[in-house]
């Protein structure tokens, strides 16, 4: 069974010196410059391993791996956006106030 590959045309700009070198390489392999560049790019793209992390924490904090915690965060953000809640900060000491201000 043959798979269908959807292609998209994209113009790219390359320096003349790079095109000359690529042309020589393509000719040495019996390919057109266009086919040679396409093959190189496709091979490179297929060799890449792309991993999308679902954990939003830069440190990978495991707390964010629990779906219940993420749902809680999203619901609190939505409630805040809808004006259903307010952010309250209770500062009890001079040190807490200084820390709060320095973290703004």
Briefly say what this structure is.
By secondary structure, the protein is an all-alpha fold. It has 4 helices and no strands.
What does it look like?
- The chain is mainly alpha-helical.
- The protein has four helices and no strands.
- It has helices at residues 16-28, 33-47, 67-81, 94-102.
- The N and C termini lie far apart (59 Å).
- The mean pLDDT is 87.
Main beta sheet = none
SSE sequence, one letter per element: HHHH
Computed structural class:
mainly alpha
Shape: elongated
The chain-level mean pLDDT equals 87
Approximately how much beta-strand content do the residues carry? Answer: under 5%
Radius of gyration: 27 Å
Distance between the first and last residues' Cα:
59 Å
Q: How many separate helices? A: 4
Unreliable spans are: none
Tell how many strands the DSSP assignment holds. 0
How helical, in percent, are the residues? 40-55%
List keywords for this structure.
0% strand; 4 helices; 50% helix
Helix and strand topology:
Layout: H1 16-28, H2 33-47, H3 67-81, H4 94-102
Helix pairs in contact: 1-2
